[in-house]
Amino acid sequence: MKPRYRLTTMGMISVCAALASGTGIAAGEPAAGTGDYDALDYTVSLEYRSSTKDMDGTTTLKARATEPLSGFALDFAGGKVNDVTVDGRPARFETREEKLYVFPHRLARGAEFTVTVGYLVTRTNGPQGDGPWREIDDGFAIAPQTHETMHRVFPCKNDVTDKATYTVDITAPSRLTGVANGDLVETSQLPGDRTARKYRVASPMPVDDGQIAVGPYSRITRSGPDGVTIRDVVPTAQAGQLRDTLARTDDHLRWLTAKLGPYPFGTYGLFAPPGAVGPYESQTMSTIDAATLAAGKADYVRVHELTHQWFGASVTQQTLDDNWIAEGHAHFYGAWYDAEQSPPTSADAFADSMRMFYGMDQKIRAVEGPPATPKPISGQTQRAGGALALYALRQTVGPQVFEKIERAVAARFKDSVASTADYVRTAREVSGRDVTALLTDWLYGKKTPPMPGHPDWKPDPA
Ligand SMILES: [Zn+2]
Predict the structure, then answer these.
(1) Can you give the CATH number for the domain in which 99 is found?
(2) Ligand 1 centre from 39 Cα, in Å?
(3) Beta-sheet strand order (sheet of 217-223)
C-alpha cells in the first residue's frame, strides 16, 4: 500500500494516495512485433450481479497507431479474456503476465483502429489486499489510484499520460444504482429487473482517474457556482442527514475558483460510499466515505480532493517524480482553506500551518527524498514538501504574481500533462524573475532551504 499519513495536529484525516506514475506498467519484455499507439476513447461495459464477484465486461478502445503495428498490448489482469476483435474482425491474442497482446491485420502508422475485448473480471485484490476493489454489502467501488490498477478492472493502456475520453456503461439489479464519474447520459430498463446507466467522461482523463461503483445510492443534482452542475452520489438512506454538509461544496468551489481560475469541467460532486472507501479523486467526483462526511470535519480533505480537479485530473503530472504538482497543490490549498476555517489563533493561520510543515520537512526529506525526486514509496514529501515549495514561491514573488502563475499553469496545461520543468518555466515566464534556483532548491534539494520572509523558521530538532 502507498502510505496514507495522518496529520492529527491539524485535525486532518488521511488523504488520497498519490496519482500513479506516468510510466505505465512496463513489466516484461514487449512481444515481438508489438508497438505503441495513442489511446483516444474507451467504452467500458460491466454487469454487476449480487451473488458473485464475477462480472461480464466488454471494453472497446479507439486508438491511433503511432508506428506501423502488427501487434500491440493492453494491460489487463484479474480476468479472463473471451474474445478480441480489431475493426470488427476476430484477432489473435495472447495473455501473459499482466498483458493482453493482440495481433491484428497490419496497421499503418497513423491508422485509427478499434479493438473490442470481451472478458470476465473477478473482483479480487492481490495477496496483500492490494488492488482496486472495495466491496460493500451489496455492491462495490474502486480505488484505482492506490496501485495503478485500473487494468484489474478493464483492459486498458495503463499510462496516465495517455489521456482519453470514456463512456462507462454499468448494468445492475434495479434496486441498486450503477455509478461512474462523468455525466449520466442514458438510463435503460432491461429484462430481469435490471437497469443500465451510461456515463460520459467527455474531457480527456488519465486512466487511473475513474470511479466505477454499484450500491444503494441516490444521485442528487443541483446548480452550483459559476454554472457548474453539482452532482452528489450518496447512500439513499443517508441523503437527508448529509444534505447540509454536501452544501459546503459551493463554498469550496467558489474559494478555489477565486484562486485558480475557472473549474476545469462542467460537473463536480462527492461520492459517499457507506464503507471505508477513499478519500481520493476521480475526474468530476471525489470519493469520501459517508461517515467522514457526516462527521462534518472534512474541509481539508474536501478541498484537497477538489484541488485535484485542476492539478491531477485536468493538468496531469508527466511522471511519478512530477506528482508533487498534484499532491503539493492539493495539500497547499487544503491546508490554506482549513487554516482560514479554524478559530483564529494568530494573524496568519496559513503561515502557522506552513511553519508546522516546515519544521517536519527535513525529517521527511531524509526518509522520502526531495519532493521532485521521491523514493518510490512516498507521500509526505510530495504533499507537504510540494506545498512548502509553492509557499516559498509565493513568499518570493508575492501573492498576486503567485496567483497569476497558478492560473497560467492551470490554463496552459488544461486537459494535458505537465512536468516539473513546465511548472518552473511557467513560473519564470509569468513572474519575469529567475525563480529556477529557488524552486530547484525546494524541489530537488536534500536539505530544507530557508523560507523566504521567515528567517525564524527552523527545522524541528532531530
Ligand atoms: Zn491528493
Answers:
(1) 2.60.40.1730
(2) 25
(3) 217-223, 229-235, 267-271, 285-287, 280-282
Residue 145 pLDDT level (bands cut at 50, 70, 90): low
Cα(449) to ligand 1 centroid in Å equals 24
Give me the DSSP letters along 237-298.
Answer: GGHHHHHHHHTTHHHHHHHHHHHH-S-SSSEEEEE--SSS---EEETTEEE--HHHHHHT--
For residue 342, give the DSSP letter. Answer: S
Q: What percent of the chain has pLDDT over 70?
A: 92
Q: Is the pLDDT of residue 47 over 80?
A: yes
Cα(16) to centroid of ligand 1, in Å? 4
Query: In Å, how far from its chain's centre is CA 184?
Result: 20
CB 132 within 8 A of CB 89: no
C-alpha cell at 305: 480532493
Separation CA 264–CA 395 (nearest Å):
27
pLDDT band per the 50, 70, 90 thresholds, residue 147: low
Residues less than 5 Å from ion ligand 1, measured at CB = 15-16, 327, 330
The residue count of the chain comes to: 462
Structural domains counted in the chain = 3
Q: What is the mean pLDDT of residues 137-146?
A: 85
Question: Residue 267 has what pLDDT?
Answer: 97
Among the candidates 232, 267, 297, a domain finishes at 297
Give the per-residue pLDDT at 275.
Answer: 81
pLDDT bin (cut points 50, 70, 90) of residue 378 is low
Note whether 171 and 81 are same-domain residues.
yes
Domain that holds residue 101: 33-208
